[in-house]
Amino acid sequence: NKLRSVLGVMMIMSWGLALILMGGAHWLAQFYDEPDLRYILWIIAIPFFLAPHSSVPFAILAREMKFDTILKINLIGCLARHVSSIGLVLLDYGYWALAWGTLIGVV
């Protein structure tokens, strides 16, 4: 029951931040006179929708002191993020590579 409450609070906070980021993306793109910034911020906001579903299991793993499992999960995520970002940069995706790399590292 407590875990469900924590998940609910995490969803409200994280999804709220994602919606604020997505809602303000158009304004920020206009402010910086960079139309692509809108779509980049949308891509970067996607992990906020996924975060509540991973933070609770990570907290449970930490409480059970399964740090080896946490290390493996984080290491795989970091490797996926960095390899995909570097690979996309080498394929001339430019700054899009960082946005897609961030998303790939979270998933």
Molecular structure report:
This protein is mainly α. It has four helices and no strands. It has helices spanning 2-31, 36-63, 67-90, 96-106. The longest helix has 30 residues, at 2-31. The radius of gyration is 16 Å and the shape is flat.
Task: Name the features.
107 residues, mainly alpha
SSE topology sketch:
Elements: H1 2-31, H2 36-63, H3 67-90, H4 96-106
Q: Can you tell me the residue ranges where pLDDT is under 50 for at least 5 consecutive residues?
A: none
Q: Please provide the ordered H/E string of secondary-structure elements.
A: HHHH
Largest sheet: none
In total, how many beta strands?
A: 0
What's the overall average pLDDT, rounded?
93
State the end-to-end CA separation. 27 Å
Summarize the amount of helix as a percent range.
Answer: over 70%
Helical segment count: 4
Q: Kindly provide the radius of gyration, computed on alpha-carbon positions and rounded to a whole number of angstroms.
A: 16 Å
The fraction of residues in strands falls at under 5%
Class based on secondary structure composition and strand pairing: mainly alpha
The shape, in one word, is flat
Concise account of the structure shown:
The protein is mainly alpha-helical and 107 residues long. It is 87% helix and 0% strand.
